[in-house]
Amino acid sequence: MAPSKVLVGVIGGSGLYHLDNLTFVKKVDVTTPWGKPSSPITISALPNGAEIAFISRHGPHHTITPSEVPVRANIAALKSLGVQAIVAFSAVGSLREEIAPGHFVIPDQIIDRTKGIRADTFFRGEGVVVHSMFGDPFSGQLNAFIKPRVEKILAELGGGAALHTGKTVVCMEGPAFSTRAESLMYRQWGGDIINMSVIPEAKLARECEIDYSLICTATDYDAWRVGEAPVTVEEVVKTLHTNAGNSRAVAAGILEEVYAHVSAGELTEIAGSMKFACITRAE
Ligand code: ADE
Questions:
Q1: Exposure check for the chain: N or C terminus, fewer CB within 10 A?
Q2: pTM
């Protein structure tokens, strides 16, 4: 019998506004205490009948800038549906020669350049002080599960889209891309790729005890390469279409197994991790 809960959520980034190989079930129009999500949430059935939830981060027609994504509503809405694991997708700039446009990256670490600007917690102004554990900002267990599967699918696709792992994503504010000096600085800091979206998504997923992994697709070399023009939207859009097709193939290839893994209770580190996060003392 098909599992009845929506245990897995997918967040689509630039270029990824729907998934393939799914049967549409319904759209749900959720309102959370933090407002409405970026888009109605699409519930779809995988070939085995298990249902997943999909949100388009920038809205179905890409009208929401990275700084204005209602991330708390997105994560709260997925949590309210019972989601325990999120596989998010994001277009990124590359800060490393070996990460070419078209390549995939599953990062392990984040450098946050949006601190203090975005609403990055559910607890501010709530009369409680909460510190989530965020040293390893992605789900190590979910990352370890999806990495070999994504690698296998990319090899089968055969278009030369390599997978890089163990990398660090810089999250910048935008909307303008980085200056050359900033791009060079991020490289010195140890950044490998750059986007405008992983924060606060990863932080809020952690506060909700949801396992969160990010599958990135490189669209450009940002602004660090000497003698080359810095990144433009035109350049980003050029690879976006191919990258989105490959991302849909990856999603179609991994989601049933991810669902089964979550359903079997194999993700054990993030659930319950907020148990001791509240430092406020009861009277
Ligand atoms: N998303 C795609 N390319 C990017 C870049 N170079 N900087 C920030 N976000 C991006």
A1: C
A2: 0.96
